[in-house]
Amino acid sequence: xxxxxxRDKLVIAEYGRNLHQMVYDCCEIEDxxxxxxxxxxxxxxxxxxxxxxxxxxxxxxxxWDHLHIMSDFKLDVDSSYPPPSKEILTARxxxxxxxxxKIRYRHYGxxxxxxxxxxVSFEDGPEKDALVRTIANHLKKSYLSWNRSSVDDEVIxxxxxxxxxxxxxxxxxxxxxxxxxxxxxxxxxKFTKPPNVPFGGPNGNQxxxxxxxxxxxx
Length: 218
Known about the structure:
Layout: H1 16-27, H2 32-49, H3 59-70, H4 86-90, H5 110-120, H6 126-146, H7 153-163, H8 179-187, H9 204-217
């Protein structure tokens, strides 16, 4: 008995071994016109095997590309679509370039550093004061997202001074949000009843009326 593990590896396994064999046999047909008709028949079989592919507008071209790939680019037929390039399929993707920017405090992230840098350029006034207060509270919130216990407000203000190079400082009367309030907001993810839908599902009012009628009859 011959096992599949002893046979050649399938190029596109989802089409199965029988269809791969049809592609191999198609390549052996000498008459070009007959070979083209056979290839079109195989394309129709492939479309039936994978009906979801029809959801894309260029699904016929994808099927022809798969056909050429399964034939190891040896299939020579008259097609409405040019065969894909073998070099493109075997080419290695370009290496992605990553930004290597140092983050002073990882629990705050890089975006807040960019915001602080932008806030420094603001002119002194109510708008800048409001932005500094927002940034300070955001730093505390981010800190508590990683350290669930507590944090001294002096630590947050010290970090703000370091990140802004001592150019941002809240007003003396400003007070950060209380730690318990921030932790409560972070944990507030309980289920809430959707509007206009009674508990027990859309038919919850029916259940309520049923129990109400039972009480009256009892």
